[in-house]
Structure formats: C-alpha cells, structure tokens
Amino acid sequence: KYDIMNDLMSGGLHRAWKAYTVMVANVREGSRVLDIAGGTGDLSLAFARKVGRTGTVVHTDINEAMLRTGRDRLLDEGFALPTLVCDAERLPFPDAYFDVVSVAFGLRNMTHKDLALAEMKRVLKPGGKLLVLEFSKVAPPLAKAYDWYSFKVLPRLGKLVAGDDASYRYLAESIRMHPGQEDLKALMKESGFGHVDYHNLTAGVVALHVGIRC
Predict the structure, then answer these.
(1) Which of 200, 194, 198, 191 shows the shortest CA–CA distance to 212?
(2) Whether the predicted model's global pTM rises above the 0.90 cut
(3) Cβ(15)–Cβ(37) under 8 Å?
(4) β-strand partners of 36
(5) CA 49, CA 47: separation in Å to the nearest integer?
(6) HSE-up of residue 183 (Cα within 13 Å, Cβ side)
C-alpha cells in the first residue's frame, strides 16, 4: 500500500516533487547515479530513462522487501538495474564513483545523518551533486493546520488504507524531529559539501537540498 498511501497523503504532489528533483539533477546520457533509500523505484526509473544505455543507475535500500517491490516494478518497465540492499552509513562503493547521488524521504530515518552524508560525499565525483528530497519545516501560517493533518488525519488514513496507524504516527513524529531547512543545509556543509542550497516545495512541506562536492 506504500505507493497508494503516498498518493493519498500528498494528493499526488509527491510525483511533482520527484519530477522536480530529477529536473534539478540534470543527469545526462552516460551518467552514473546512486539512488539511496530507493524503495519502490520512482526516482531510479526516472533516472534510468535519462542516463540511457551507456549510463548506470544503482537502486538501493536498507529494506529488502521495499527493494524487491521496486526491482519488480523496474523490470515491468523494462529496466534491469543493479539493485542492492545497503546501509547508507556504510556505502559499498568506491570513492569518487557517481555523478549524482539522490535520497528521497530516506535521510529522516537514518540514525547518524552526519555519517550518511559523509558517505554520500565520498562516493561522489568532484563536482558531483547530492539531492536530498525530504519533509521539512512548513511555512508558519500553515503550521497549525499541518499539525492537525499530520497527527489526526494521517494515522486514521493509514489505518483505513494500510491497516497500520502506528507507522503513520511515527511518520508525523519523525518529520518534526528532522532538521529544518537551514539546519540540514549546515549539516551538509559540515559533512564536506562545498556549496549547498535548498528549494522549498509546497510552502516548505518538502524541501530539496542540493549539495555539490567541490
């Protein structure tokens, strides 16, 4: 029910957020891309269509069940990508290997975000780009309504559709614990990214952070 819940929770906006991420990534024919916490494969599929036959997209997740679902979906679309269960805090890839690293709605769940970001920087080529798409701090005028939706509506929706209210209660709580826009920008700089910027999407419900390895 993961993809169905994404559509219901965001009113389909997650598709636009991911499309924007792919546009900003600006991957080209022959690029090497690492998709961390790739889950059901939305971004991996979009990147695979951009890099062509001469490029590589590596689809990874720490959750084997999610990864298997994503792999099957990618195969149904005609893409047999390298698929690997791995921990973002200990990436099994050589230094300076990828042109682009992406992590969508995954950094929030990593215990040691600083270690994960340092690993992402390590595997990027000089001039390579990290894209972190994640829930962030919503604009103040919307904060009360957003809290009501997050803590009252989401768990009920999760129970009704997925038979799981606890996971969606955790989702709301984890979003509040995740660093806001400026804090995550600072953390990325501390992790060694020479230039970091962010783009607020949907009034800050989500932010896309972009870091360049210098």
Answers:
(1) 194
(2) yes
(3) no
(4) 103
(5) 5
(6) 11
Q: How far is CA 157 from CA 24, 145, 167, 168, 202, in A?
A: 32, 16, 11, 8, 21
Q: Tell me the torsion sign for CA atoms 117, 190, 20, 206.
A: positive
Torsion sign across C-alpha atoms 50, 99, 107, 64: positive
Residue-wise pLDDT for 56-107, tens only, equals: 999 999 999 999 999 999 999 999 999 999 999 999 999 999 999 999 999 9
- Angle of the 166-177 helix axis to the 154-162 helix axis, nearest 10: 140
Q: Are 132 and 35 in contact (CB under 8 A)?
A: no
β-sheet bridge partners, residue 208: 133, 199
